[in-house]
Amino acid sequence: MLDSTAAGLLTGLSLIVAIGAQNAYVLRQGLAREHVGLVVAICALSDVVLIAAGVGGIGRIVEHAPWVLDVVRWLGVAFLGWYGVSSLLRARTPESLRAAETTTASRRGVAVRAVALTWLNPHVYLDTVLLLGTIANHEGSTGRWWFAAGAATASILWFCGLGFGARFASPVLARPRAWQVLDVLIGVVMLLIALQLALG
Fold first, then answer.
1. 148 to each of 1, 30, 79, 156, how far by Cα in Å?
2. pTM beyond 0.70, yes or no
3. What domain range is 8 assigned to?
């Protein structure tokens, strides 16, 4: 139980911690201190729903067609490999992430943008529904839901930390070296997970 939850937590964090449109938006809202709670709630709850759908949906499909798991597993290996290599290549040319100049935005406008950046991003589906769902199913019928709980916790912790902690982290996140180290760590973790899936 604890092993599955910890695996889900670490895998979830490794997938979500990366420079992207959604994270950049959460960070900018945190730095601007505008509707931070709303943005964090939308992003975190969306991840929880998608993770649950991935774990539940893939599990039901596999029960009726076990070969589907092999197909999805190798798709996951391919994507994780590409993701890991891309992160390592990105680390060669580090970029800083600074908050853009912001103006006071309406609550509705902020919510619409957060929803769009979450649900219209194909990587969100690959990460939560496909990858986490596939990895979770290697934990067994009960373990997969503990894995999902760990991954969901990772999303909640990350978005809360990114949104509410942005004001404290802005000097660090503005330095290219910080993102370079982060990209290297993400790349290594992704490649290790890909290897684990390939050998499993």
1. 11, 27, 20, 12
2. no
3. 2-199
